Amino acid sequence: MPATSTAATEARSEVTVTRIFDAPRALVFEAFTSPEHLKRWWGPHGFTVHVCEMEARVGGAWHIRMRSPQGVEDRQRGVIREIVAPERFVFTYAFEDESGRRGHETIVTVTFADVGNKTEVTVHQGIFESVEMRNDHVRGWGEALDNFASYLNRTSHKE
C-alpha cells in the first residue's frame, strides 16, 4: 500500500491527498492523463468506467461516465487548464445530471514529483460548496488512488 497523506481544510473546503507510488514518473503521469489508462482505475472501489473521453490538451474537454456496484450512473466532466508533462495536470471537475446540466465546479491540480525511483502524486481540489461534498471527495480520491496503485503495480510489472 502506498504512503498516504490527506488534509481536508474545513474553513476553505479544500482537499489535498498525497501518495507515493512505486512507479516511474513518466508512467504515473501517462496513466493519470490518458483515457486508455484512466478507464481502468478511475473512481471509487467497485465502480466501472464505461465512457472515458479526454482531449489531452489545454482547453480540451474530458468526460467520464461510470457505474456504481448498485448500477447507479455517475457522470463527471471538465476542461483541461494546464498540462506540463510529466510534472503537473490541472482541470476543472463537475458532476453532470442526465440532461447534461453541470453541478458546482471545482479545480483539481495534480503534481507529480520524483522520489528516487518512485513518484509522489499530490491531488489538490477545491473549493467545495459544502463540507459533506468535500468529505465525499476525500473518500473518493482515497479509493481512486487505491485503484490507481493497483493498476500501476499491474502495468509496471508488464514492462
Structure description:
- With 159 residues, the chain is an alpha+beta fold.
- 25% of the residues lie in helices and 43% in strands.
- Strand 3 and strand 4 (61-67) form a beta hairpin.
- The model has no long low-confidence stretch (mean pLDDT 91).
Descriptors:
159 residues; eight-stranded antiparallel sheet; globular
Short description:
With 159 residues, the chain is an alpha+beta fold.
As laid out across the biggest beta sheet, the strand order is 1-2-8-7-6-5-4-3
* Strand segment count: 8
Q: Segments where pLDDT lies below 50 for 5+ residues? A: none
Helix content: 10-25%
| Major sheet size, sense and barrel closure | 8 strands, antiparallel
Distance between the termini: 21 Å
Q: How large is the radius of gyration? A: 15 Å
* Share in β-strands: 35-45%
Tally of alpha and pi helices: 3
From the helix content, strand content and strand pairing, which structural class follows?
alpha+beta
Could you spell the SSE succession in H and E letters?
EEHHEEEEEEH
